[in-house]
Every structure is written in structure tokens, then in C-alpha cells.
Design brief:
2 copies of one chain form a homodimer. Chain A is α/β, with parallel strands linked by helices. The first copy, chain A, folds into 3 domains: 300 residues, Rossmann fold (3-Layer(aba) Sandwich), CATH 3.40.50; 182 residues, Thiamin diphosphate (ThDP)-binding fold, Pyr/PP domains (Rossmann fold, 3-Layer(aba) Sandwich); 122 residues, Rossmann fold, CATH 3.40.50. Helix content of chain A is 43%, strand content 13%. Chain A has 26 helices and 20 strands. In chain A, the strands form 5 sheets. In chain A, strands 10-9-11-12-14-13 form a 6-stranded parallel sheet, with helices on both faces. Chain A has a 5-stranded parallel sheet with strand order 1-2-3-7-6, sandwiched between helices. Chain A has a 5-stranded mixed sheet with strand order 16-18-17-19-20. In chain A, strand 13, helix 20 and strand 14 form a beta-alpha-beta unit. In chain A, helix 1 packs across helix 11 and helix 14 packs antiparallel against helix 20. Chain A is elongated, with a radius of gyration of 27 Å. Chains A and B meet through helix 6, helix 7, helix 8, helix 16 and helix 18 of A and helix 6, helix 7, helix 8, helix 16 and helix 18 of B.
Chain lengths: 659, 659
């Protein structure tokens, strides 16, 4: 151990707080903070740019604890640095209901927590988005205003997760040189030695993906400092710092073993660790000279921030206003009128196109009026139609580009979009097939947990995609996405609804899924209306308000439902079609509105080319569902709709069975 | 082009059929078959061991088209080799309803299709399981009976997917030398050149993961043959053959472009391609000398198979019987009595343990009586309790091991288990936390599409896991897993139910999820019953059969429901608790049985520490749900149950509100 006494004391302050908090909670992960304390000390007190008094300073460096289980490393550091929200009482409330110090770092809980981590690999996957956002905004607003680094601490678990490969191959390809990943190379996982389950040469792997690599002893603060500073010098590659550490460093019997990963040390081991480390103060009581040293380090960037404020103040007014608007996430003044004008055009034009095409038409307008959108696709651009004339690619050589060629990396696309949104200044949207939300689900769930404005453009949204067959046909997905709390799932029926859903997704302060058809659909919304009917989630799109039968439908099936009205009329049955572009928004309306839409029908039918699960609430005991009850099949779309009985005729039968 | 005339003709037969079938279907992917035809020709006619007349021969080499969109490569080859089911009429019915020639290869549709592929990365991820099964069975039954290779063709898309990293790092770690992946290195993806989205040095990446690598021109059959034979010689590493190819080889204007990936060539381009390739015969009419050469090659392994049959016939009777039982997937004669005996012991012992512990107790019995189980965990063995004294690890040096240390690779775990199950001879089970089914969902869906006996041991199944917080607490997952067609989702309430669910999972011819508690639960099934009540999915576990109120519950909430009975009784309300270990099995029962369980209650309540979506069908209009309506939180389990109102008191209120 070559660290100076003060350096040791500062790192031990983290170790001490981490051990104490986990012990008090009788739950948590002391191993990582103890092993990584030296790295965190150097990173936070000597290298990173941030200001605890202005924690949301737009040009701060970002820190991401990808190994989120080591949350006490972050909480202890934030406390030591002087982040106001992170009090010693919060540390004492670690893992208790209502505290800011949750088991894993939760975005929104306290400043300094840049993203929610815990599910392994997500942080490193987010970080690529942060670094993309930085590079893109720097290209737009200049390095006077945007010039910061993204720092990640990742464990062996993060590197074993598949999404890490998607992340590092994308970051290397894009030459995101201001991204630095510090690998806590402690050779321990929950089940024992890493070598039990993995033999990957990580250095060679990162090099193969175009990364700069540095190997150090992560317990030697001088080596750490040199590595971090060297990483900042990398001009055209992201950097991996492979830092050899010892999990649970200082614990007399449990260090360097999986026993210290995820359980309190216990009184004896804790006492032994403190003795071995030279920690002679009571639990949660950091000596003032150590605390003062940390707090002083916390003020290091005050001048840099002041200079930055000066540069912002003296920037051209339009640039400054635009920068502030973008970081605040406000929409431009002409947003509403632009959408309304285009809606009027669509009402007049009545395009008969697939909703994926309608989405592209909407994007052509949106991308013009919102320079903050950054599109992309997981290698399905021509299918998702996520591109517009504005979306030149964001590349290693053109940081001004607005389109992410994510490659065949659905999971990383979603995770990177989380990072882009969390960074602020950009609105990410990205496409793949709806069925492949399965590949991205852990990151989609995090969009929802963190309430981030991430827009998923998910095309080929049913058996309507046809011949590609069951592996490509979503069946359960609309229901299983609606099942995720705080996620908006839109399935628009025509061009006008698609525009309205896009408007809602852009205005929402939460993530959205747009489920869009591959097949062409007629225009249904052919009359001018005021406002955005889709905003209420569901509304009567056709038929008599006081009809005997109500037919709920979404997307491509709204057309089928509307077609059934004539057939029903021929049987002397009055019916109406309720288009339900978003169940979530409909349930958020007043009971009065919902009653007014549903009416008091004698028959209820819902039709959607997916499973019934998410429809049962609307249908109740007597309503009937028309949709899928199994996986799909490979055949032309029309044949499949007939084969699976998703037809106007089926609607008529279902209505008549109830009357 | 250095191939002989006959070699070219044989490869062109594939190209021709692929072009014709895609053109006739007016849908499909001609690019891959045209680029990879030479590789397939050499692999199928010179290297692989199989017998079209005995397509399920246990010791055949396995072929996996990981790039499943190139399905016509496989169908054309199977037809040419003489697989009976794959007629020329089937090729003409490519992508039509009811044909064996679905858009992507579908397991069960025709012999020679070893696994369902299409979602990228899944095939290469399956292949690790195939190779594990081969090595394990060879160790058990000897190389006289088990000695075959697993061959994979993977595209750039497969290698970009994160799951490929999990697959190759696991395969390299386990030194699966009989696994050979041929990378169709054509530098084209749907959006254009690979170099638009990826710059990975794949050779270096595979080397970093412990693979043998070979680089060849994939259009030169001599190079292909040498590479395939060299790969077979690898003693301690899986092999990557990086085969440079040209997508759509032969197409005059579209070759080497993404235009030939996923669309028919069109009449003019098709004619031009045939002219350029020297294909002068009509569509679907392979000249007899070429067809005969293929058919002759298809018989190459007849003698090898005969010899193998001889070795099997002359093996020790017990070994032979056991081998045949295992490959047929039959359970041993003492299976039922073993389970019954242990159930009697549990009824007597009344253990108060978490259901994850009950699962381990069940496994201790199951692993003794079923040598075919191969367990594992994604680095959570001590949490999932998936190990027993029998489960020594399967490693690079001990192929007899029965436990897969999957590492932090949930997706690969699921995909490998698919491969193990598809191989036959073993029953795979593997564990992680229930919330991380999200990471494995694409592979879980394939378990269900393929109806494979794969058992997912998913512990920490609710907010009951406590302090780890919302990222680790499943909320929507029970509903979203029930949403997958053909998947059994079990959530047992105590040790006896857990054993019963394990029995059902082992006996099912489809995949199962066991959702298990972290927290201890009392014994509820304390009386001897005949048969397996869990087999009917739901049954009255407590209370009066003709009660006024019925309370549906699963898992840890059954205890809460049973506790409410006393409270309800104090209010003068008769009630019963219906334990629902499997909704799927309950819905599969007769209406009569379901009516008998539910009765005609005046009040219905369902309680589950998840969302309500999958309960609405049982609850109908009037029933009430007690569970989660948001993400969870970080706190001790008891505090969370109270905080979210999942309590006996809430049940009483919900019942009384209905009476």
C-alpha cells in the first residue's frame, strides 16, 4: 500500500460509512465500496468536474455506478463531498422505506444519482448514451458550453452481461473518447471466483472493440490518478481502465471472497476490518479533518462552473436561449401550431398508408421543428421508417448527426436512449420490430422506473407483418408492455392518430411505445376536430354514441371494427367503434369521461391482433374478445387474419351472441 | 472461383431453389442462401454426419442456422439431401399457411430443423447448449454412443446481438471443442455495410473468449472443406470459421448489397443471376445429375449409423436401456413413488421455509432419481438454491458434472437450456431472480414456441425480496409470463405445493417457470391427499367449500389469504381460499371443475404481490384485486407488504365491500 496517510483516510471514510450503513440496515453490499474506495476517492476528489452546490450543472461530468449494488460507494461519496440531500441521517436510513438511500441507486431520489442502476450491465449501456449526448451537444453548442466526461464503474457482472458487448462495440465504433469505464477487476462474483464461469481476456475483448485500455492496481491511488488523467487524453477511443482490486478490502477473513459481496460483515468482522484499516472512530462519525478534506475537494470545480456560467451568459442570446430550452426540456413556441397545421393537412389528404409510414410523415414535421430529436434504429431503418431528410447519421467523424445507427443491438439502443434522455438536451427515439421489445425489456423497464422521455418506434406490430412467422409476430407484447407501470403504449389507427400519439409521446414526461403497422391502413379520421382526442386514450371514432354495441379496437383492427358497422347495421344492430390508442391514458381519465365513451351497451367486443389479457378490464364478465390465443404463423397477412378469425364477421358474431 | 463444375452446380442448386422459392412466395431472404451455398454444400455433402432416412438418429451432427432468415438455405439443402418431408412442393409452398417451409425455420415442422431460429443470436446461443449436452452425454454413455459435432451458421446480426457474447464467452470458458461456428462474413446488414454500425475485430473478439479461429474465402469450396475438417481437430477450443462471402452471390446488380437481403430479386434480376451462375434449368427443376449427387451425399453416413446401431445393440443392456430412456425423454419407473414418498414426508415434517428452499428440498429428491437433470444458475446459486449434493459443476475438465455455472448470463442460460432440451437426453433447469426473466425473455419465448421441457427456477418472486428495491422486485412479471402462450407459470405456496409443481414441470412437455419466494412461509398443506391437486391449477386449500367469499391467492400470499379467514369469521363471513399454483392449468380444466372450485360466491378477491392484469378473468366485474399498482420500493419485506397494502386486513375490507 503506497498511498499517503491522508489518501488512505479519505478512502477509508467511504469504507467505514459503507460498512456501517450495511451493518445498520442488516442488508446490502459492502464488498464493492471497500474494494473501490481508492478509485472513488481519486475520481471524486481529484479528477471529476462537478459542483455539489449546483448538482444539475449542465456541463458536469457524469458518474455512473454500473455495479449498482455497491450503492453505498455513491451515497458515502456524495455525503463526503457535501451534496446537501445526502445527509448522514440518510446514510443511517440506508435501504429503509422512504429514504434517498435505496438498495440500488434510484434516479430522482437525490442529486448526484445520474441513473438508476442495479440490473447488471445497464449502467455501462446507459453510459454510451450519455457520451453520445455530450458529443452531439458539443457539436451543436460548442465546447465552451459542452465539454465533459462520462465515468463508469463496472463490475465483472456488468461485463458478462450481453448488453455490455452491444455497448462497448457501439462505443468503440463511434470512437466515444470521453467515455471512461473503470472495471472493478476483483475476480469475484456471487458464486465465487470469476474463473469458475468466465475466462475472457477482457483487455483483448475491449481492444477488439476499438477501446484504449489501461491496467492498474486499483488500490494504489497514484496509479489510479495517472490512469484517469491518461484516459482523459484519449483522442479517438473510449478507455477501459482495468483496475485490480480486492473485494471487501480490509475485512480480515472475508476480503477477496464472495462472502463479502452482498451481506453485512457482522460485528466481529466489521471490528476487525476497522482495526486493520486503522479506522478508530465510531460508526457514521467521520473525523473532521477527513471530512473537511473531502468537502474541500467537493468545491474544486466551483471556479470552472463560474467560468462556464460566464461563457453561457456571454454567448449569443439565441444560442443561450436554445441551450437553456433544450436542457430544460421545453418545447419550442411553434410546436403546437406546427402539429395542428400538419394534422389539418392529413385530415385533408387522407393518406392510405401503414402507420409506420404515418409515423415517418409525422417525424418529417417533428424533426424539422424539434432539433433536439435524435433518431435511430436497430438496423431496420427501411422497415421502421425512423429516418427523415434531417437525420444524417451521428458518426465517429460527424458529431452533428441526428441519427443513431444502433446496429443489431436492440437492448443497447434502449439503454443508450435512457442515457441520452437522462443527459438532457435531446429527445431520443429508436425503432425495431415490436416483437423485439423482448430483447430490450430490461432497459424499457428502466425508462419507466426513471420516467424518461424515451420513444420506442415499434413497427410490424402484429400478425399483419405476415410471412416472417411466429418468431417475428408479437402476440403477447401489447399486453406485456401495458403491464409495465408508467409506460405509455400507443397503437394508433391511422395517420391522424399516429400524429396525435407522436405529439403525446413528445409531450409526455415518461417513456412511450408506438406500436405501428407494417400493412397499409385507410384514413379513418377524416374530419377536423379540435384538440387531440387520442390524449384521452379512447374515444368514439365511428357509429352512434348511444349504440347497443360497443367495439373497442386499436391500430389496424380499428379499420376492421369500422367495417363491421355496416354488417351490424344490416342485422339491425346499432353499434359504435371506440378507438383506444392508449389504455393508460384512458384509465387516467375521469369516470365520467370513461362512462361517456363506453355508454351503456348491451354488447361489448374488443378486437386486437394480440392476446386478451389487457382487455379484460374493459370487457368485464360479458364482453367478448377477438384476437390471438396462440403464437402466430407464417403466411401472407390477409390469410393470417382469416385463419385466426380476426375479422368483421367475427365481430358481428360476437355482438349477436350477446344480444 | 476455383470450384469444380460439379461443386458449382451443387451449390447453385441451393441458390436456384432459394431464388425460386422467394420469388414464388414474393417474400423472403435470398441473399444469405446465395452467399452461403458453397459452405452449405461442403458441410452437408462432405463433412456433417447425419442420415436423412433416420433424421432423429441420436448421434447425428446438429446443424443450426442461427441466421434463420436464410431459411431457404436449410429447406433447399434438406430437399436436395433427400429428407422425405422436404418435398419440392413444400419448397413451392414457402411461407404459405400450413407449409413446413415457414418464413423462419420452425422446430417440429420438419426433420432436419433442429431449432427455431429467426430472432438474431438465438441459434448461436442455443448451440452452446447442444454442445454441452453432447459433451455431458458422451461422458455418461461413452463416445461409442455419443460423438458428434454442432455446426452453426451465423451472420453479422447474430454476432452483434449481446447474447452472442454470453454464448461465446461461455463456450470458450467450457472449451466446447466440438462446437463450430461459421460466420457468414458478408459485411452487409439490413441498413447497409456492417461498417456503418460496427467496427469490431471479430477474430480478436473470439480469440479473447478462448476460441480457435480460421479465416477463409467462403466461396471457395476447397478452403471451406479444409476449414471444416481443421475445426473438427480442435482439441480444447470451439472454432470460429470466418468465411468471407458475398451476399446474394450471382445477382448481377444486387449482390454485395442490402438490396438482396430480404426481398425477392424480381424477374429481371433473377434471370440475370441465373445466367451469371450458369443455371439454365426451369424454376424448381434441379437437373437429375446434380440432384443425384446431392442424394448420394445424403447417404454418406448410412454405414456410420449402422455401425452406431451395432454398438448400441451390443452395449450393456442397462446402459442401452438407460440411453434409450433418456433420449426418448421417459421418466424412470420409480419416479412417481419417489415423489409420493417425499410428499408424505413433507406433509409430516411441515417445514417452514421459503419456497426457494422447498425447491431445493424437491431437487434433492429429483436429482437423485433423475440422472438426466442438469442444473445451473446465472451466478445466484446460493440465492436460487438450485444446487444439491449431486450437482458437481460441468466444467472444461469434468464433463460428467451436472451443474452449469452460467455466470451472469441470464439470456444465454435460457438459450443454452433450449439447446440442451432440444438435443435430448437431459432435462435442464436454471435459476435467476424472477425480475431478470426480462433479460432472458427472447429465449423463454422460444422455449414456449418450441414446447421444450426447460425449467426456469425464478426466485425472489415479489416485493418480498425486500431491500434490493424496485429494480429487483418483479411486479408485472407474473402477468407478463402468463401472457406467453404455451408457458406454464407456477407459483407454489408451501413445500408440498412446490414439490407438486416440480413434479408437473418435470412431466410437462412444455417449458415451466417456478416463481419462488425469498422469504420463509409456513406449511399449509399439512394433510395427506391423493394425487397432485396442483395439477388442476387451482383448488380450495382452506375454508368452507360453500363460502360466501372466495379468495384466490398464489405463493407467499396464500398464507396471507389463509390468515384472513379468521378475521372474516370474526365478522361472521364464511370464506374459502383457492390456491392457484398455475392459472394455465386451471383454465385447461373442465368448466365443471372450475365451477366447483369457485362456487357461487357473493364476493371474490384475488391477492398476489404483482399487478392485477392476469387476474381479471377470474375476478370479473365485481371481484377485487389486492396487489401492486406501481413499481416496488427498497425496504424490509414486512414494511413493503404493509406499505403496499397487501395484507389480511385488505382482504377483509375487499370482501366486506362486496357483501
Amino acid at each position: 500500500m503506497t498511498n499517503s496517510a491522508q489518501a488512505n483516510e479519505m478512502a477509508n471514510a467511504i469504507r467505514s460509512l459503507a460498512m456501517d450503513a450495511v451493518e445498520k440496515a442488516n442488508s446490502g453490499h459492502p464488498g464493492l465500496p471497500m474494494g473501490v474506495a481508492d478509485i472513488a476517492t481519486v475520481l471524486f476528489t481529484k479528477v471529476m468536474k462537478f459542483d455539489p452546490k449546483h448538482p444539475w450543472w449542465a456541463d458536469r461530468d457524469r458518474f455512473i455506478l454500473s455495479a449498482g449494488h455497491g450503492s453505498m460507494l455513491l451515497y458515502a461519496s456524495l455525503y463526503l463531498l457535501g451534496y446537501e440531500d445526502m445527509t448522514i441521517d440518510q446514510l443511517k436510513q440506508f435501504r429503509q422505506l422512504g429514504s434517498k438511500t435505496a438498495g440500488h441507486p434510484e434516479y430522482h431520489f437525490a442529486p448526484g444519482i445520474e441513473t438508476t442502476t442495479g440490473p447488471l450491465g445497464q449502467g455501462i449501456a446507459n453510459s454510451v448514451g450519455f457520451a453520445v449526448a455530450e458529443a452531439k451537444l458539443a457539436a451543436e453548442f460548442g465546447s465552451d458550453l459542452v465539454d465533459h466526461y462520462t465515468w463508469v464503474i463496472a463490475g465483472d457482472g456488468c461485463l458478462m452481461e450481453g448488453v455490455s458487448q452491444e455497448a462497448i462495440s457501439l462505443a468503440g465504433h463511434l470512437k466515444l473518447n470521453k467515455l471512461v469505464v473503470i472495471w472493478d477487476n476483483n475476480n469475484i462474483t456471487i458464486d465465487g471466483r470469476v474463473s469458475n464461469a468466465d475466462s475472457t481476456d477482457q483487455i483483448a475483448r475491449f481492444k477488439a472493440c476499438g477501446w484504449n485500455t489501461i491496467e492498474i492496481d486499483g488500490l494504489d491511488q497514484a496509479q489510479v490518478e495517472k490512469a484517469l488523467l491518461d484516459a482523459k487524453k484519449s483522442k479517438d477511443k473510449p478507455t477501459l481502465i482495468a483496475a485490480k482490486t480486492i473485494i471487501g478490502f480490509g475485512a480480515p477473513t472475508k476480503a477477496d471472497s464472495h462472502g463479502v459481496h452482498g451481506s453485512p460483515l457482522g460485528a466481529a468482522e466489521l471490528a476487525g476490518a476497522k482495526q486493520q484499516l486503522g479506522i478508530d472512530y465510531p460508526a457514521f462519525e467521520i473525523p473532521s479533518h477527513t471530512l473537511n478534506a473531502w468537502r474541500a475537494a467537493g468545491t474544486r470545480s466551483e471556479n470552472a462552473r463560474g467560468d462556464w456560467e460566464g461563457r453561457l451568459a456571454s454567448a449569443k442570446p439565441e444560442l443561450r436561449a436554445e441551450f437553456e430550452r433544450r436542457i430544460a426540456g421545453k418545447l419550442p413556441a411553434n410546436w403546437n401550431e406546427t402539429i395542428e397545421a400538419f394534422k389539418a393537412k392529413l385530415v385533408a389528404d387522407k393518406p392510405k398508408v401503414a402507420t409506420r409510414k404515418s409515423s415517418q410523415l409525422a417525424l418529417e414535421v417533428i424533426n424539422k421543428v424539434l432539433p433536439e430529436t435524435i433518431g435511430g434504429s436497430a438496423d431496420l431503418t427501411g422497415s421502421n421508417l425512423t429516418n427523415t431528410p434531417e437525420t444524417l447519421p451521428f458518426t465517429a467523424t460527424d458529431r452533428a448527426g441526428r441519427y443513431m445507427r444502433y446496429g443489431i443491438r436492440e437492448h443497447e439502443m434502449a439503454a443508450a436512449m435512457n442515457g441520452i434522455a437522462l443527459h438532457k438536451g435531446l429527445i431520443p427515439y429508436g425503432g425495431t420490430f415490436l416483437v423485439f421489445t423482448d430483447y430490450a425489456r430490461p432497459a424499457i423497464r428502466l425508462s419507466a422506473i426513471m420516467s424518461q422521455k424515451v420513444i420506442y418506434v415499434m413497427t410490424h406490430d402484429s400478425i399483419g407483418l405476415g410471412e416472417d412467422g411466429p418468431t417475428h409476430q408479437p402476440v403477447e407484447h401489447l399486453s406485456t408492455l401495458r403491464a409495465i407501470p408508467n409506460l405509455l403504449v400507443f397503437r394508433p389507427a391511422d395517420a391522424v392518430e399516429t400524429l396525435e400519439c407522436w405529439q403525446l409521446a413528445i409531450e409526455a414526461e415518461q417513456p412511450s411505445i408506438l406500436a405501428l403497422s407494417r400493412q397499409n391502413l385507410p384514413a379513418l379520421r377524416t374530419e377536423t376536430v379540435t384538440g387531440n382526442p387520442s390524449a384521452k386514450g379512447a374515444y368514439v371514432i365511428a357509429g352512434d354514441q348511444n349504440a347497443d354495441a360497443v367495439i373497442f379496437a386499436t391500430g389496424s383492427e380499428v379499420t376492421i371494427a369500422v367495417q363491421s358497422l355496416e354488417l351490424l347495421k344490416a342485422q339491425g344492430i346499432s353499434a359504435k367503434v371506440v378507438s383506444v390508442p392508449s389504455q393508460e391514458l384512458f384509465y387516467a381519465q375521469s369516470q365520467e369521461y370513461r362512462d361517456s365513451v363506453i355508454g351503456k351497451p348491451k354488447a361489448k367486443v374488443a378486437i386486437e391482433a394480440g392476446i386478451e389479457m389487457s382487455w379484460l378490464k374493459l370487457l368485464g364478465d360479458k364482453g367478448r374478445f377477438i384476437g390471438m390465443h396462440s403464437f402466430g404463423a407464417s403466411a401472407p397477412a390477409e390469410a393470417l387474419y382469416e385463419h385466426f378469425g380476426i375479422t368483421s364477421k367475427a365481430i358481428v358474431e360476437a355482438v349477436m351472441a350477446q344480444l
